[in-house]
Amino acid sequence: MPTKKEAATLLQNIGLLTGSQVEEALEKQRQTKHSIKNILKELGYLHQGNIGSSLLSQFGILPRETSEENVAPEVIKSIPSSFAKEHQVIPLEKKDDTLVLGTDEPLNFLALDYFKEELKKKVQLVMVNQNAIASSLKKYYGIETEDLSPLFEKIDQGYTPILKETEKAVEGEEEEAKRAPIIKLANILIADGIKKRASDIHVEPLENTFRIRYRIDGVLHETLSPPKNIQRAVIARFKLMAQMNLAEKRLPQDGRIMLNVQGRPIDLRVSTLPGLYGESLVMRILDKTTMLVGMDQLGFLPEDRKRWDALLKFSGGIVLVTGPTGSGKTTTLYTSLNALNTTDKKLMTVEEPVEYQISGINQTQVRPDIGLTFASVLRSFLRQSPDVLLVGEIRDLETADIGLRAALTGHLVFSTLHTNDAPSAITRLIDLGVPSFLVASSLQGVMAQRLVRLLCPYCKEEYPPDEETKNFLDIKAGEDVHIYRTNGCEACDYTGYHGRIGIFEIFIMNNELRELALKKAATFEIRKAAIKTGMRTLQEDGIIKIRKGLTTVDEVVSVTGRKENVTRN
Description:
569 residues; alpha/beta; GMP Synthetase, Chain A, domain 3; Beta-Lactamase; Rossmann fold; 3 domains; 6-stranded antiparallel sheet; 23 helices; 22% strand; ATP-binding
């Protein structure tokens, strides 16, 4: 491929651009990060002609028949969606250390140095037709750029960014938020997020850009970058929908948007946070149809399902579910409560917040600002003659003490803790200050869980595992095991994954475990005793699901760490 100077000379010789025009355009691109084609149009240089296909070889750009082949997910992730859409390029493959980009714009060769600098990669351009670029951008990066470009242009028309925090400025911001193009863009972002099964929509002002990302199956994916100058109008639109105070930008705010999408009730929990470049806004998408799944859809293997069902049948005692935020604890507990929700039982929950309203269950949301805490609500619950209680989270000694004492008086209590594994729940309660005799007598069982992404059933591909993988999966010589990895297709939006499944470790208290709790034994002793009862560890459960072709080694390692040594007697 020619150097910048050689390219300028060549373009000058065929009467397209002068060397100074090329330099001017490239300098403006470095400043604005806009596409070279749009910059040349703005400068008035592009009308002088087009580069014919006969000249492409002189620029080192080879034609490619099509870009319709499936592109590996890791290749798609090698460039941000905003970059792909701005410059109308699509990553096709990696050859050694070189990234092959498809483009329908020959003048992109002028920006090759810029591409290398921005992407921190060696880049090779190939020519593909315009339709292939458009369909690939839609296929791999979501929202159709050709649909949104006119919308962005319309938004830009007559829009003046509001710079000062005055009453008049806030009124102007509200007016902008009510403009039809802004409303349409906000609706598109929400609808597209729901369509793609996003759990969260992140609206993020950065220094020079305005970024929208979706969290899908626990992983953030960039979807598009609207013009920077409309960020305040877009954020104001979402704040209006969530009935927030538009004028308040110094403090975090929380709000709620209730929608009905194709007959499905959708609840958006909206939060804002002041930032250096504007307010960051996140919308948590709560879809009741996906939250209340059947017990069979949680991902239990038969032995663990039996253990969990046994815990649900206790008439009293406390059952704990542990794991970090986003590990699926709420879904598991809501699904379990729904299974217990019969006319002969009274179920009550205290949560912060109440994520879903379940018919037939009395649900209370805590309000610490007026003294309505987990502990105070729990005390009141005991005067309401409940059968089953859910305490959203045990955070302090008072809540733990009341919850465990309630469990001793004929109530089945469910709650959550933040611990790394199931055995640590016992030591965590004791560390909070709960008397060891109370833990030993009231605790019925503990389940730890994590979420791993499910391989797309339509495109997953089998591969021969290397020695490291064989060791991790305990594959013996001659053992016939089929291991799969990601590929990417339209059904999974070219990520290679579709949906998530739980991996679990569950133990039910027995005499040995109660004695260990009573004498405040170390976690490793409790873990050893729990394994003796038949507890399968999180990693062991994950390995079985890899062997079943449900997920990948990378997913299990990401939540359970390196290979663990488990001794079973």
